Automatic annotation (TrEMBL), chains A, B:
Record-given protein name: dITP/XTP pyrophosphatase
E.C. no: 3.6.1.66
Species whose genome carries this gene: Amycolatopsis viridis
Molecular function (Gene Ontology), one example: ITP diphosphatase activity
Reactions that this protein is recorded to catalyse: ITP + H2O = IMP + diphosphate + H(+); XTP + H2O = XMP + diphosphate + H(+); dITP + H2O = dIMP + diphosphate + H(+)
Length: 202, 202
């Protein structure tokens, strides 16, 4: 059985990729995570695009392990902010990983933005890099609109203010499995399936 | 002599336009400011572009006074922020008019942005609207790069972190007259001169 590294320490992300592969009948791939890789060098994400960051992370993982590696980079793109926070989503307020501060800042910046201009999308770029240098990078998008206050406690990041198209709930009010099925991350990972299927030898 | 309203209460902006007109030999126009217009309705700036905001302000001024009116809207566009703060420059931190908080936030957001991607421009849209409905809107840009810390005490807003192209100083270290000659506002107002000259009957 081939192994593929998912460049994350997040057990939920590992589970998500394993579920997607199983659902597609791709049985020939064992997914391992970064917790199995001692002393992986965590480089800062300084790319100008989600794709650059996902590719850089996957390349670093291949260099460190010689395994085929999948990596992703995700964020919120807000129409009225010309697509920002984008690659700065996790540090929009200047404090890296402070979800509440980041979300509060986006709401404050959009105070005077009318409903018809509050469109946004969650975006995920996912990259697969093979030890032979073959690179595949794909993008998943999840369109919606930004509310004026937070609702719901599932999810993380900007989920509590993001209402997907065709939904009355925010993505923080959706069950994790529902979100997997619709989300930018799920879409990006499914877009990688043809390349993963080839890797698995199907 | 014709009169033209400059839609501002800022005496420095009035002086700047008067100086530019005098320097161009346009003597047939008396420039008046909003402090001469009691109870002018100040509308919030909710446009998606500098041009929309400048035009809206000039139209409001014409409606209130029946005078030809000039208005401008300015801001900082940062390449690594996809052109934002843009029209949100004065309220980027969520606190309207808090120059220090706005500047600090931009610096924090660009912490990991390397020097070669720190390009930015000050942009000014200036609009002239006549009582007969004729509208002219122009744009002035001032390219430069953003430093990593503030320098200088002239100017306001983002001046202390903006180093214009061809300069070693920030725009907050330049003398006001030098800044007038080079700045986005000066360029935009000079681009309005043909329309103002026509208005003055030259």
């Amino acid at each position: 059985m081939s192994r593929v590294l998912l460049a994350t320490r997040n057990a939920k992300k590992l589970g998500e990729l394993r579920r997607i592969l199983a659902a597609e009948g791709i049985g020939g791939l064992e997914v391992v995570g970064l917790s199995d890789v001692p002393e992986f060098p965590e480089a800062p994400e300084t790319g100008a695009t989600f794709e650059e960051n996902a590719l850089a992370k996957a390349r670093d993982a291949v260099a460190a392990t010689s395994l085929p590696a999948v990596a992703d980079d995700s964020g919120l793109t807000v129409d009225a902010l010309n697509g920002m926070p984008g690659v700065l989503s996790a540090r929009w307020s200047g404090r890296h990983g402070d979800d509440q501060a980041n979300l509060d800042l986006v709401l404050a910046q959009l105070t005077d933005t009318p409903d018809e201009r509050r469109g946004a999308a969650f975006v995920c770029a996912a990259a697969l890099v093979l030890p032979d240098g073959t690179e595949t990078v794909v993008r998943g998008e999840w369109r919606g609109a930004l509310l004026r206050e937070a609702r719901g406690s599932n999810g993380f990041g900007y989920d509590p203010i993001f209402r997907p198209e065709g939904e009355n709930r925010t993505s923080a009010e959706m069950a994790p499995a529902e979100k997997d099925a619709a989300s930018h991350r799920g879409r990006a990972l499914r877009a990688l399936l043809p390349a993963l299927r080839e890797l698995a030898g199907h």
